[in-house]
Amino acid sequence: MSVSAIIVAGGKGIRMGAAVRKQYMLLAGKPIVCHTLEVFDSCHCIEEIYLVVPPDDLDIRPERWISSLTLHKKIHLVAGGIERQDSVYRGIQAILGQLCEVVVIHDAVRPFVSSHIIEACVAEARVSGACIVGMPATDTAKLVNSGQIERTLDRNTIWLAQTPQAFDLNLIRMAHEKARLDRFMGTDDAMLVERLGRKIRIIPGSRLNMKITTPEDLDLAEGIFKRKSCNMEK
C-alpha cells in the first residue's frame, strides 16, 4: 500500500503571542516545521509529503527554507483553510487521484515524533483502516462543568490523543465530507471517523511527542532538543 503524509502547518499561533506563526518559530536554530519534515522524510514507509500552510504563506515562498534541507521525498505545498479541519481536507483533496491508499496526518508543531511511531501507526492502519497514537492518562481526571467538578473519571480508560493519525484514504475522505455536510467541527481527525461508527485502534505514542503551542512549550522543546543532542554526542 502506498502511503502519503499530510503535515498540517496552518496554525495561527495565537497562544504564542508572537508575530511569527508557531510552525516557523526557531527550535535549535531551525523552524519547527523543518524538524518535523526531516523525520517524515527519513521514514521508509512514507512516499510523498503534503505540507499544508496558510494561503498567505505561499507568498513568502516556503520552498526556500524547504530547499535548505537535505530531503529525499517530494514535498507538495497545499494552501490550507480557515480551521485545522479545513486544512486537512484540502490536503486530502490534493492527494485524491494519486496512487495512495493510506494517509498519515500529523501536526507540524510535534517535531519530536519518531520514525518508529509513524511506521507503527501506519502498519496498524493497513490492517484496521484507522489508527492513532496517544498516551494513557497518568493524572487523576475530573469531569468539569462551569468550573465545578461533576465527577472523577476512571483514568485507566482515558488516553490523550496525539498525532500521527493514519487512515485508509477513502475512509478519512468520507469522514471529512460527512463532517462538512453536517457542519461539524471536531478536535481531531479520529473524531470525524468515530462519527461514521468506525472503530479506531490506538497505540502508545511518546510523552516527548508534544505539541508546541505556547512559549513555555517552546522552552521545554529547546531543553528536550539539547538533551537529545548531548545523548547523541556521547
Structure in words:
Helix 3 packs across helix 5. The protein is α/β, with parallel strands linked by helices and 234 residues long. The strands form three sheets. The chain has a seven-stranded mixed beta sheet with strand order 5-4-1-6-10-7-11, sandwiched between helices. A two-stranded antiparallel sheet has the order 2-3. Strands 8-9 form a two-stranded antiparallel ribbon. It is built from seven helices and eleven strands. The model has no long low-confidence stretch (mean pLDDT 91). The longest helix is centred in the C-terminal third of the chain and has 19 residues. The chain has one domain: Spore Coat Polysaccharide Biosynthesis Protein SpsA, Chain A (Alpha-Beta Complex). The radius of gyration is 18 Å and the shape is globular. It starts with a strand and ends with a helix.
- What is the name of the CATH superfamily? Spore Coat Polysaccharide Biosynthesis Protein SpsA, Chain A
> Major sheet, described briefly?
7 strands, mixed
Strand order of the largest sheet: 5-4-1-6-10-7-11
Strand portion: 25-35%
What's the number of structural domains? 1
In total, the number of strands is 11
Q: Structural class, from helix and strand content?
A: alpha/beta
